[in-house]
Amino acid sequence: MIEFKNLHKSFGKLTVLDGLDLSIKKGGIFAILGPNGSGKTTLIKCLLGMVIPNKGEINFNNESVLKKWEYRNNLNYLPQIANFPPNLTVIELINMVKNLRPKESKESKLIELFGLEDFLNKKLGNLSGGTKQKVNIVLTFMFDSELIILDEPTTGLDPIALIHLKELIQQEKANGKTILITTHIMSVVDELADEIVFLLDGKIYFKGSIEALKKQTNNNNLEHAIANLI
Ligand code: ADP
């Protein structure tokens, strides 16, 4: 479904992606891991067309994304930091996003699931970080799409919201969707990920199942296995 070929990206003298090759098949949950600054967000932004690589190719369903933009109608993206307009209310933002796509949307169910009913008329600028993240999640999951990209989706969530988020991700997988997720929470990776993609020095250092990682590093604890990888 997604292919990165020989991807290079530098910011000034800093090389972030250094000839990265990666293929991701359709269906399943892929955890994109790596130390801070290893280029996870840059890789995602290249796929979204928000960062233009210096060199390389990116294909989505066998078509180059660098030349066409329509593919973006078929993916949902949860940014690591949601820059919401502070003076809009929650419901005004949800309705604005809803009007952008002529697709069926399921925001009501999600508002209920994350207990946002009492916040709908509050201004986004007055919400706590965790409540903003719940809004971020509603906006990401309200439309159906083939690919779902989640950059640190658990930030600020309370334990109940975290359970709901994990269930949502699992439901999407059961419906045949492809989910890319970056997170520092290893229990989320352990519970959800079908494959781990580990970035280091601008390249893919490891790609495979959790079992394969544990076997390769001779360690049954995921956190330790990842620490042993490098
Ligand atoms: P990660 O998501 O793995 O923490 P990022 O992709 O956010 O890493 O960043 C990788 C490196 O690139 C970091 O050193 C970061 O400071 C740098 N970087 C990211 N975006 C920019 C930018 N727009 N301009 C300059 N440097 C950037």
From TrEMBL:
ABC transporter domain span: 2-226
Domain of life from the UniProt record: Bacteria
InterPro entries noted in UniProt: AAA+_ATPase, ABC_transporter-like_ATP-bd, ABC_Transporter_VariousFunc, P-loop_NTPase
Alphabetical keyword list: ATP-binding, Nucleotide-binding, Transport
Gene Ontology molecular function: ATP binding; ATP hydrolysis activity
Protein's recorded name: Copper ABC transporter ATP-binding protein
Classification of source organism: Bacteria, Pseudomonadati, Bacteroidota, Flavobacteriia, Flavobacteriales
